[in-house]
Design a protein that fits this description.
Residues 2-238 form the ABC transporter domain. InterPro entries: AAA+_ATPase, ABC_transporter-like_ATP-bd, ABC_transporter-like_CS, P-loop_NTPase. It holds the Pfam family ABC_tran. This is ATP-binding cassette domain-containing protein. This protein is an alpha/beta fold. It has 2 domains: 2-231, P-loop containing nucleotide triphosphate hydrolases (Rossmann fold), CATH 3.40.50; 240-286, no CATH class. It has 11 helices and 10 strands. The chain has helices at 40-47, 70-77, 95-106, 111-124, 140-152, 170-187, 198-204, 231-237, 241-254, 271-275, 279-285; strands spanning 2-11, 14-24, 29-33, 55-60, 63-64, 80-83, 158-162, 190-194, 207-212, 215-220. It has a 6-stranded mixed sheet, sandwiched between helices. Strands 2-1-4-5 form a 4-stranded antiparallel sheet, with helices on one face. A hairpin with a 2-residue loop joins strand 9 (207-212) and strand 10 (215-220). Bound molecules: adenosine-5'-triphosphate. Adenosine-5'-triphosphate is lined by residues 11, 16, 34, 36-42, 196. Residues 11, 16, 34, 36-42, 196 line the site of adenosine-5'-triphosphate (ATP).
């Protein structure tokens, strides 16, 4: 488990993270969401030690990361896999060389053991046989998968992924989301994903924290999020027309007016206005 207490981070006189407390659930996909500039990346970078917070504590399995020496932090970092924006693959290295890199850095495995491990993770991300390709020869989705393979090659306890879907089409985004979820479940990793992609939120959001101007505004899961009464969160999530429709459908299902098979025939014209409140009415209830 990763536990964050009173985390603060400023740059100059600008406060970016303003006292965040949160527990990131073990063995689950924890999503950090929020609009651009809300502090998602800064928060995550504090968690992995790329930024030094001004105050607050970060506990990895109850051990205070913020109070650790550099060497102790290195030990924790060995247990963290990271995939930051743009995949960050070394363009002059083959897929295999990219993936073996953490093994070279952090282990004393033999060449044979390393090759076996690289093949194992490449197979896990459905890139069997892509060992000798260079990043320039890969599609965006394949590059992400290489990034994921590299992030899990050391069998991490924690996995941090920043905007896994940036630059990908919706279908490929879905595949990457599923891969992240499968890997999280299979290896019981505590995964932290930074995203503004609402499809990802709905698909893999076991636990979600919504950041607003550097503060935790809401937390919950993907079942709860579309029924939240938090106005700021609603403005953020229902910017997507699709989700507004999905919420209306769920409300109709819950009242039993339409079956789960989405048999719209059961919905009569008269039912619709009472079952689907217009957005203005919802706002008044806040
Ligand atoms: N190294 C830095 N020095 C100064 N300011 C920074 C630094 N890194 C981030 N910031 C500022 O912190 C604020 C939050 O940035 P951050 O990248 O965390 O936002 P975000 O929520 O991840 O946004 P996006 O979704 O656009 O990636 C921004 O105003 C940004 O300019």
């Amino acid at each position: 488990m990763i536990e964050v207490k009173g985390l603060r981070k400023s740059f100059g006189d600008k406060t970016i993270i303003n006292g965040v407390d949160v527990e990131l659930r073990p063995g689950m996909c924890n999503l950090i969401i929020g609009s651009s500039g809300s502090g998602k990346s800064v928060f995550t970078k504090c968690l992995v030690g790329l930024f030094q917070p001004d105050s607050g504590q970060i506990f990895y399995d109850r051990k205070d990361f913020t109070a650790m020496t550099t060497d102790q932090k290195k030990e924790v970092r060995k247990e963290i896999g990271m995939l930051f924006q743009g995949s960050a693959l070394f363009s002059s290295m083959t897929v295999e060389e990219n993936v073996v890199f953490p093994l070279d850095m952090f282990t004393k495995k033999s060449t044979k053991e390393k090759r076996e491990r690289v093949n194992e993770v490449l197979e896990r991300v459905n890139l069997k046989g892509a060992n000798k390709k260079f990043p320039a020869e890969l599609s965006g989705g394949m590059m992400k998968r290489v990034g994921i393979a590299r992030a899990i090659v050391l069998n991490p306890k924690y996995l941090f992924v920043d905007e896994p879907n940036s630059g990908l089409d919706p279908q490929t985004s879905g595949l990457i989301d599923h891969l992240i979820k499968e890997i999280t479940d299979e290896y019981k990793i505590t995964t932290v994903v930074v995203t503004h992609d609402m499809n990802s939120v709905m698909e893999i959001g076991d636990h979600i924290m919504y950041l607003y101007k550097g503060e935790k505004e809401w937390e919950g899961n993907n079942k709860e999020i579309i029924f939240s009464k938090n106005q700021r969160l609603n403005e953020f999530i229902f910017a997507s027309e699709f989700l507004r429709d999905a919420k209306d459908m769920r409300m109709l299902e819950e009242t039993g007016k339409i079956a789960n098979d989405r048999n719209m025939a059961e919905l009569t014209q008269d039912d619709a206005p009472t079952l689907v409140p217009p957005p203005e009415e919802e706002k008044k209830e806040e």
